[in-house]
Amino acid sequence: MTVIDQAQPAPSPEAAEPRPVEAPDVPRRIGGVSRTGVLSVLGAAVSALCVTLLLFGELAPLTGPLGFTVTWYLVFLAGYAALVALDEDGPAIRDRVMTVVLWSAAAVLFAALALVVGFTLWRGRDALPHGNFFTQDMQKAGPLDPLTVGGIAHAMLGTLIMIVIALAITVPLGLTCAVYLNQTRGRYARFVRTVVEAMTALPSIVAGLMVYATWILILGQQKSGLAAAFAISLMMLPIVIRAADVVLRLVPGTLLEASEALGAPRWRAVWHVVLPTSRSGLATAVILGTARGIGETSPVLLTAGYTAALNADPTQGPMVSLPLAVFTFVKSPEPDMIARGFGAAAVLMALVLVLFAIARVLGGRGPGHQSRRQARRTARASRRDVSRFADLHAPALPLFDGENA
C-alpha cells in the first residue's frame, strides 16, 4: 500500500496570532461609601470652612453663627458638586448632591432630637433619682418643699386613664371610617373625607372649647378625666383616619378580588384579608394618633381642670395629665419645681416610647413577614386543613346488610 503524504495547508497569519484575553466584567458600584466619596466630602467641607472664614473675617461684613453655618453649607455644596464633576457627569452630580442634602437633613433632625432628649434629662436629673417622684402626688408638697417630698403619680395615672379612654373611642371609629372611605365611592364618601381633612388642622383649643361647651355648660357635667378624653379623641381621630386610609390604599386590589372570586362576601374579605395585610401600617396610624393626643395640654386644662391629689375616677372630680403638670411646674420660679417639670417631661417621653413599643409588638411585621409564633399558628392551621380535606376525599366504607350477607 502506497501512502501518499498530503501536504498540510500552511496556517494563516490570522490563525497564528493569539486571541486577546477578555477582561472579566467588573460591576460598577453604585451605592455604599467609597474612598473617593469620603475624600470629596472632607475636601469640600474644609475648603468651604476656609472660604467662609475668609468671607466673615476679611471680605464681607457678615456676622452671626447662623449666617456662618448657612454660608458654610452652601459653599460646601458648591465645592462638593465641583469635585464630583471632575469624575462624573450631570445625573451623577445631581444624585451625589441630593444624597448629601438628604443625609444632612437626617443628621440635623437626629441632632435636634438628641438635643431635646438630652436637655430634658439634664434639667430633670435632680428630680428623677428620687423614688417619691414616681409614687407620691403634690397634695402635701408646696413650691418651697425639697424634691424628697411630692411627685407626679397623679399626673402619670391621669395620663394613662385619659389616653386609654381616648384610644377606646378613637381606634374603632377611626379604623371603621378608614375602611368606609377605602371601600366606598360616592358623594358622601368625598364629603366625609373633606371633613376629616379639615379636622386635621383643627386647633386643640377649639376641640377643648367644644367639649367644654357641650359636656360641661350644656349638659351640666363637671370637669373630669372623661371630658378630657373626649377632647383628646377629637384630636386623635382625624390623624388615625387619614393615616389608616393611606395604609389601606396600599393593599393590592388583587387580594380583595381573589377573595371575592372564591365566594367570600365583602365584609369577610375586608376582615380576613385587607385588615391583616395592613396590620403593621394600622399600628403606625394608631401610634401617630397617640403621639398627637398624649401631648395635648390646652384641651385637658379646659375640660379636666387641675388637682394636686391623686384621682383614679375619670367621671368624678378634676384630673391632671403629664403635659399639664409640666406646664404648671415650669411656670414656677422655684428651681425645684422647674426640676419637677423637666422630670415629668422625661417621664412623658418614656411613656410615649413604651406605648410605641407596645403598638409595634401588637402590629407585628409587614405583609409577607411572619414571626415564629405566627408561623407556628399557620402551620397548625395548614395541618388541620390537610386532615379535613383528607377526610372529605376518603372512600366511604360499604354498609353491612345482614339480609344480603
Automatic annotation (TrEMBL):
Domain of life: Bacteria
Subcellular location, record wording: Cell membrane
Residue ranges, compositional bias (Low complexity): 1-15
InterPro entries per UniProt: MetI-like, MetI-like_sf, Phosphate_PstA, Phosphate_transprt_permease
Membrane-crossing residue ranges in chain numbering: 38-60, 66-86, 98-122, 152-181, 201-220, 226-248, 269-291, 342-363
Lipid bilayer topology: Multi-pass membrane protein
Record key words, sorted: Cell membrane, Membrane, Phosphate transport, Transmembrane, Transmembrane helix, Transport
Basic residues composition-biased segments: 370-381
ABC transmembrane type-1 domain: residues covered: 156-359
Region (Disordered): 1-26, 365-384
Family as reported in the entry's similarity comment: Belongs to the binding-protein-dependent transport system permease family. CysTW subfamily.
Function: Part of the binding-protein-dependent transport system for phosphate; probably responsible for the translocation of the substrate across the membrane.
Entry protein name: Phosphate transport system permease protein PstA
Originating organism: Streptomyces polygonati
